[in-house]
Amino acid sequence: MARQAVTLIGGGLVGALLAQLLATHGFSVTVFEKRSDPRRLNFARGRAINLAIAERGWQALRTAGLAQRALRMSVMMRGRMVHGRDGTGSLQRYGLDDSEVIWSISRSGLNALLVDAAEEAGATFHFGQTLVSTDMDTRSLSLMDREDVPRECEAGLLIGADGAGSALRAAMDLYQPLGIRVEPLGHGYKELEIPPATGRNRFAIEPNALHIWPRGGYMSIATPNINGSFNVTLFLPLHGTYPSFDTLRDAATASAFFAREFPELFPLMPCFADDFDGHPVGKLATLYLDRWHIDGRAVLVGDAAHAIAPFHGQGMNCGFQDAVALADLLAGCGRDTAGAFAQFQQVRKPNADAIAAMTLENYVEMRDSVADPHYLAKLELEALLTQWAPEYFMSRYRMVTFTALPYAYAYARGRAQNEVIEQLLRDFGRPGDVPQNVAIASLQQALPPLQSVEDPAIHPMHAAALSRFAFFEA
Ligand code: FAD
Ligand code: E0Q
User: Rg of the chain over CA atoms, in angstroms?
Assistant: First the structure.
């Protein structure tokens, strides 16, 4: 039997991983990617951008056999370092110990690794090829290269991994409405940078943390790169009264604002004005679709199907889970691709909806409450419940970040757990005054035991890597 042809639009993080997985399963995979080859980017000139990778992402990379190589380009982050206005910083651990940490990984480095691996598995990439339009009846594609030279080609099974602005999604929607809904957050972001420090320590601030400067209504974060630099991202309302991106029209106004609101950060950023002027304002939105596929012809994955806000650091992690699920379904469906696409949507959409919702809740939490006394009391009680009844209580953050429990399960269970916590705090006031036996009884009454966590959060793979960071032990 001839190998089934798959045409992937987009060779970003999810597209390249999916190409590797499908090629490994024996499909004949062709990828069209708008950008140039990530392996030929000029790293010295290109901006280092990173993103947080957590257990779900690692599991997908393990499936592809790429986790070890990816780990080598990652920096451990133990928790969020919350910086108050008074210049104090305190680390809120993400997990119980160093076995529950997340990792900051280079976006371009990871993309290059995934493209390499996909090619090794037999996939063919065409870079600099932008999908312009698609005839869904004949499955023929119109593409354009960087010199505006058009190209027509016949597609196989069509998969759209072309991100939040997906061109394949637009073509599918024209053919058969997908029920697209975009909910803008009204907030945007600007990518800035702290360069590597000179001297003994390459890192200008604590390397093994995700730094947050919450200011209520807006915030900055910083995440480490292996070369000692940090990506700084300023999140701010797009419009409206000062401060908003509208009111920070030029680098001088922006510098004055930034220096006042983030006084310990500003002096570490000699390129602030250039970065602010040179980088676009990114817009944030959540994207929902009623349908992710058109019968057995075309399907959307990753951000193309369900772009979310970045405030839980789960967009790529979720998209990687999509890739593994879709590859498995396609490999096992014979020629019933319509069935595989339908099942893919059925399995993944409730989870995509759940992480979208949890992400929006996390934004409000980040911006407004990480330093709030009630929020801190809840964190404290969560730590106690984790100790007292680990089979009945796992914080929602840990379920999302350190397990592969379905997002929808984490969302529903998190809500029920939260009700117990709120009730206990209402009844007893401070976390330290909550009696252990009452707390355990409340949990057992409100919740079934935790669904078993099949994959241990602590993977032996991380053990060796963690030793690299022993030096920084808090
Ligand atoms: P993309 O990475 O957007 O890739 C799409 C690819 O398709 C691109 O290479 C693009 O060039 C190509 N393409 C687009 N249009 C066409 C076309 N017409 N023809 C051909 N090719 C095309 N996620 C995390 O898990 N952790 C984080 O910490 C995190 N932080 C984030 C911070 C910010 C500020 C943002 C904006 C997002 C963050 N995310 C994070 C989300 C993450 O970036 C996305 O979920 C992830 O990149 C989705 O991968 P994708 O392959 O679906 O889409
Ligand atoms: C993580 C890791 C862009 C971004 C990425 C992230 C996180 C945050 C705030 C942001 C959530 C958290 N978080 O610290 O609760 O865990 O990825 Cl803004």
Answer: 23
